[in-house]
Structure formats: structure tokens, C-alpha cells
Design a protein that fits this description.
The complex is a heterodimer of chains A (about 325) and B (about 325). Chain A contains 14 helices and no strands. In chain A, helix 7 crosses helix 8. Chain A starts with a helix and ends with a helix. The model of chain A has no long low-confidence stretch (mean pLDDT about 85). Chain B has a single domain, classed as 3-Layer(aba) Sandwich (Rossmann fold). In chain B, strand 7, helix 7 and strand 8 form a beta-alpha-beta unit. Chain B has an 8-stranded mixed beta sheet, with helices on both faces. Chain B has a 4-stranded antiparallel beta sheet with strand order 2-1-4-5, covered by helices on one side. The longest helix of chain B is centred in the middle third of the chain and has 18 residues. Chain B is built from 11 helices and 12 strands. The two termini of chain B are about 30 Å apart. Chain B is an alpha/beta fold and about 325 residues long. Classes of the chains: A mainly alpha (about 325), B alpha/beta (about 325).
Chain lengths: ~325, ~325
């Protein structure tokens, strides 16, 4: 097992280098001169003095060939130096680690809600297949899927913050403030989970091993908890990974509405402001996080499914 | 000599309610299986053989309706609740399920799956269970039972999985074994292993067996009596030698002609839809001997000898 994990991590190195390369290329190939932008931020009143511009160009190493620039930036990253923001002058790494915490907390809260809602409703839907309850649940999922998350967020703020005054509507003061945005995020991601859980349970119920368990004399409860539950964890894990990635990447709107200092908002404003070190660093770190989530899912799979484990062992 | 009957099915009808209409999978089936007897149930895919087995076990899908009488050791199974039925399944009626490759849970060790069956029969200590499981696997000719117990199903071959399933069935003291397509999709070597497994099973328990298969040669090899099904109903039933030496129903003769050693001559046409069954004999559209009578009137089972029965107007 240890060997497989190490093997997987080593295999990630080329992926990570590719992410770095792509993130860096964005700055290199974008129109406009980064030195001009930096100069403008440092000295807004200064105009375009060619000598000063040359100074900034040299500072950023813009005269070096592409690969040398990439190498300089990448070695910096490896040692933890992501450069400084053009706009604020703060170290990018500091900004990132401050913000990623909020984004991760929000995403995990969302994931938690999405799993709870998805598994419970999916189970009920499968258990009472084709009944009015199942039809109602399925209709609700379709409606929920077509409601945009910002609408849901505003609706929830109106109900729970403005009317009931249970949660604060804006900003982050305590973990309690994550509940409302997490719920919105979880709800809008749970539709797929409900459908997946329902389909999987129904599919597994018709499978050969369930028949065997039945003719062995096991009760339906025993069959569900001992046999089916284990088999449906695999697709749930897969969808969980996909959901988590999309939540981390897509929580921008929710972060904005609820005033959470996550990376989504910051990255977008950095891109708008052509704050290249921030965009590059955030893009890269973001990519690496997603890669690691996938790695984690991969490893989780091996814990659950002996067939995957055997395949992985055979590869090494 | 009259031997005790283990299973007596009379007038069994099973149909599935679907949006397209009722699918009549089993119609008016009467079969009796006596103690220690192996009865083969043959027919092509979709003729209702497996549904017949499932009706006996009462493990049909929710949209199925089953009527008639199923007497198992003089107990009417039709009246039993699922809870009571569970006590019979796995204890008194053992099953070797279809498709051994999918019949074991891929994520659970063989050990746990066999233990489940043992627990269902009698709660035991862990060490006793292991002893019993090893004993069962040994009976099924496993050379390294300990290793089989500790591995997952995907490491076993199809034939080995089948034997594990058979071991599970053995752990009770079944008086009836239902083997559903035990040779389906297996190659010749594994097939002979399975036949051996079934024979082992019989040797070990002396149980009566209902062997559901589409493999005529296999059935002839192991069965005492054979019942042939077509489109949901029995069309011919007799002792093994009667079926093999004196097949009467044109469909059964067609089946024999379609065997590889007889030149693989196919039966023309396809079997009728179980939703819209033809009037008259269900086989008349494909029958060379079909007469006007066959087209309009449905034949009943007719006794030719004490054991040989056939459903045909022109025997």
C-alpha cells in the first residue's frame, strides 16, 4: 500500500510541472507589458519614464529567454517563494494560504451537506421507487438543478438572515457563518448525488450477489447494510471527488455573496487587474490542490476495492 | 415403490406486470421432485425456467404475481411470509445461482460471505465457523481452503467461484438444491468441474435437485428426469432415457437436431413473445407437423407412459 502511494506521488511530478508551465505561459503570452503594469501600481503618478521602465523590466527579468524566466519562477515556487503581488506588494504565498483555508472550509461544509442530503434522499427515493414520494423527490431534484446558486443564496439570506436572524448574512466571524453558504453550495451540488445514489442502489439490488445473498436467507436490511452499501461507496467516492473539485473552483459566487475571503474572489480580481504573480501563483496552487484531491480519491478507491488494489500492485 | 415427494408444484402461474402488458413467464406448471432425485428443467433463454426457480424461492421482483401451489415437504410455500421463507432459503432449499462471476460480492472476502451462510443456519463461534468453512471447501475439492477463505472473489476462477457458492449451499442441510444454469458460459473443462461439483453435492447430502439449464447434453448426463419448457409451459416430461431415446415433441426433436453432434440444424423462427402468446399450440408457428387443430386449440399434457408426458396434438 505504502509503495503504491509513493508511486502515485512520484507520477504526479510531471503533472505538476505541466501545470506550472501552463500557469506561467499565461503571463508570458498575455498582451501588455508586465513591467508597465507593475510600474503603474508602484508609482501611479509617474507616467511612462523609459529609464524606470527598463529598471522594472530588469527587475522582473523580462529580457531573459522564456525558459530561463520559467526556471526562475519555478525554482522560486519549489522553495515556497511565489513572488509578490503587483498591486499590494504582499507575498503571494501568504495571500494564498490565508484565503485557501476559507475556500476549503466552505467547500468541505458544502460537501458535507451534499453527501448527507444526497445519500438520505437517494436512499429514500430508491427504497420507495416509483411511489409518489420518489416522484416528488425526483421532481424536486430537477427543479433544484435548474435553480442558479446565487438565487438560492439570496433566498436563504432573506429567510434565515433577514427574517429569522439565525445566521449573519455577510462576512466571516465564526465557523457558524459557514453553515448558510455551505448549505447553499451543498444543496446545489446534491441533485447529482441524489440521482447517483438512487440509480446505484436500484442497480445493485438487481445484481447477482444480491440474489445470492437473498437465496442464502439474508434479510433485506442485512443485504443493504452488509452488501449494497459497500458497493455503492465506489461511485459515491468518485462523485465526491468531482463535486469537491467543482466546489473549490466554483464557490466564487457564493464567496462573493456571503463576503467570505476565499480564493475565488481574489483570483478573479487579480486577473482583472493583470496582477500576474497572483494569477500565476493561484492558478498553479489551485491546480496542485485538484491534483492532490484526485490522488486522494485514487488512494481511497484502493482501500475500498480489492480489485483496484490488485491492479495497482500489478503495475508496480 | 413410492418415494416421498420433496417439492410438488401444481398449477403454478407467474406473470410480470409491465407497462406493455402482462408477461406470462410460467403457465400452469405441474412438477414433482422426489427425495434424492435430480430433475432437469430445460428450455431456451427466456422460456421461464429461472422464473420457475425464483417462484419456488419467492425471490421474484416486485412486479411479479405468482399463483398456484408449491408444496415443499408438505408445507405450502405460497402462504408463507417472507420472514418464514428466509428460514427455508439457505437452510432447507439451497441455491447455486446463475452466473458465478457475478454471484459473489466483489468487495467482501470469501470468508465473510461463507460465514454469513453458516451464521444463517446456526450461530457459531468464529473458530468453529472457520473449521466448518474449511471442511466445506475441502468437500468441494479445494486444495488450499485457507487461502480461498482469505482472498477476494476476483482472484478465483469461474469454476472455483461456483464451488465456493456450492459450499455455501452445503452449509445447511438442504433437502432441495436449485441449480440455476450452472454451466452457462463455461468452457468444457470448467463445465465438467461443475458437473463434478453437483455430483459431489449430491453425494454429500443426498438432496433432491432441480437443475435449470439450456444444455441438453449436460442434463442428459446428470438427471433422473427431465422436463422441457417452451414459452412458459412444460411441453414434455419424462425419464432421462425416454427424453433422450424417444423425444416426441417436435420442439424437443428440434433441440436435439440443433446439438453440435447432430449437425447444428437450427429450429426455424423465434419463440413467441410472452406478452402476446399465439392461439393454439404455442409452438405451431415453428412446427413442421402443425395441423389446423394445432393453430386453434391449445393442447394439454397427455400421458404416454407412466412417466412420459407430452403436450402435442400429433405425438
Amino acid at each position: 500500500m505504502k509503495k503504491i502511494i509513493i508511486n502515485r506521488i512520484v507520477m504526479l511530478i510531471p503533472t505538476v510541472i505541466t501545470i506550472a508551465f501552463l500557469a506561467f505561459s499565461i503571463m508570458y503570452f498575455s498582451p501588455g507589458n508586465p513591467a508597465e503594469i507593475l510600474m503603474h501600481y508602484r508609482n501611479p503618478e509617474g507616467g511612462t519614464d523609459p529609464a524606470a521602465l527598463a529598471h522594472y523590466e530588469e527587475m522582473l527579468g523580462l529580457d531573459d529567454p522564456f525558459l530561463t524566466q520559467f526556471q526562475n519562477w519555478f525554482t522560486g515556487i519549489v522553495s515556497g517563494d511565489f513572488g509578490e503581488s503587483f498591486k499590494t506588494g504582499n507575498p503571494v504565498a501568504e495571500e494564498f494560504f490565508y484565503r485557501i483555508g476559507y475556500t476549503l472550509m466552505l467547500s468541505l461544509t458544502g460537501l458535507f451537506f451534499s453527501l448527507i442530503i444526497g445519500i438520505t434522499l437517494g436512499f429514500i427515493s430508491a427504497e420507495f421507487k416509483d411511489s409518489w414520494l420518489d416522484n416528488l423527490l425526483r421532481l424536486t431534484q430537477s427543479i433544484k438543478m435548474s435553480i442558479p446558486s446565487f438565487w438560492l443564496a439570496l433566498f436563504f439570506i432573506y429567510i434565515f438572515s433577514t427574517q429569522l436572524r439565525w445566521f449573519s448574512a455577510f462576512g466571516y466571524n465564526s465557523p457558524k457563518d459557514l453553515i448558510l453558504p455551505g448549505l447553499v453550495l451543498g444543496l446545489s451540488n446534491s441533485s447529482r448525488m441524489v440521482r447517483l445514489v438512487r440509480t446505484c442502489i436500484l442497480e445493485e439490488k438487481g445484481s447477482g450477489y444480491v440474489y445470492t445473498a437473498r437465496v442464502k436467507g439474508l434479510s433485506e436490511n442485512q443485504i443493504f447494510f452488509r452488501h449494497i452499501l459497500k458497493n455503492i461507496t465506489l461511485p459515491i467516492i468518485t462523485l465526491t471527488g468531482v463535486s469537491l473539485v467543482s466546489m473549490i473552483g466554483g464557490s466564487l459566487i457564493i464567496e462573493n455573496i456571503f463576503g467570505l475571503p476565499g480564493i475565488g474572489t481574489y483570483l478573479v480580481s487579480a486577473i482583472m487587474a493583470k496582477d500576474y504573480p497572483v494569477s500565476m501563483g493561484f492558478l498553479f496552487a489551485y491546480g496542485v490542490i485538484i491534483v492532490f484531491i484526485n490522488l486522494f480519491i485514487d488512494i481511497l478507491y484502493q482501500f475500498v476495492d480489492p480489485r483496484v488494489r490488485d491492479c495497482a500492485n500489478a503495475e508496480i | 415403490m413410492k418415494t416421498e415427494s420433496v417439492l410438488k408444484i401444481s398449477n403454478l402461474n407467474t406473470y410480470f406486470q409491465t407497462p406493455d402488458g402482462n408477461v406470462l413467464a410460467v403457465c400452469d406448471v405441474d412438477i414433482e421432485i422426489k427425495k434424492g432425485e435430480i430433475v432437469g428443467l430445460i428450455g431456451e433463454t427466456g422460456c421461464g425456467k429461472s422464473v420457475l426457480g425464483e417462484s419456488v424461492l419467492k425471490v421474484l421482483p416486485e412486479n411479479a404475481v405468482s399463483t398456484g401451489s408449491i408444496l415443499f415437504q408438505n408445507e405450502e410455500l405460497m402462504d408463507l411470509q417472507q420472514k418464514r421463507m428466509r428460514e427455508i432459503r439457505g437452510r432447507k432449499i439451497a441455491v447455486i445461482p446463475q452466473n458465478p462471476s457475478e454471484a459473489l460480492n466483489p468487495l467482501i472476502k470469501n470468508k465473510k460471505q461463507i460465514f454469513e451462510a453458516i451464521d444463517h443456519n446456526q450461530k457459531q463461534l468464529g473458530s468453529d465457523k472457520k473449521k466448518q468453512a474449511i471442511g466445506l471447501l475441502k468437500k468441494m475439492h479445494f486444495k488450499e481452503p485457507g487461502q480461498v477463505l482469505d482472498s477476494y472473489p476476483h482472484r478465483l476462477s469461474g469454476g472455483m467461484k461456483q464451488r465456493v457458492l456450492a459450499a455455501m449451499g452445503l452449509c445447511g442441510n438442504p433437502s432441495l438444491l436449485i441449480a440455476d444454469e450452472p454451466t452457462k458460459g463455461l468452457d468444457a473443462i470448467v463445465r465438467s468441474q461443475v458437473i463434478e461439483t453437483l455430483m459431489l453435492f449430491k453425494e454429500n447430502t443426498g438432496t433432491a435437485m432441480m437443475l435449470i439449464t439450456h444444455d441438453l447434453n449436460f442434463a442428459v448426463k446428470v438427471c433422473d428426469r427431465i422436463a422441457v419448457m417452451y414459452a412458459g409451459e412444460l411441453i414434455e416430461m419424462g425419464s432421462c432415457s425416454e427424453i433422450y431415446n424417444k423425444p416426441i415433441h417436435p420442439y424437443l426433436m428440434g433441440l436435439f437436431m440443433a446439438q453440435p453432434e447432430n449437425g447444428l440444424v437450427p429450429i426455424e423462427g423465434t419463440s413467441p413473445s410472452l406478452i402476446n402468446l399465439p392461439q393454439g399450440c404455442r409452438f405451431h408457428e415453428r412446427c413442421e407437423k402443425a395441423s389446423e387443430k394445432c393453430r386453434h386449440f391449445h393442447p394439454q399434457m397427455k400421458k404416454l407412459t407412466l412417466t412420459h408426458e407430452v403436450r402435442c396434438w400429433n405425438p
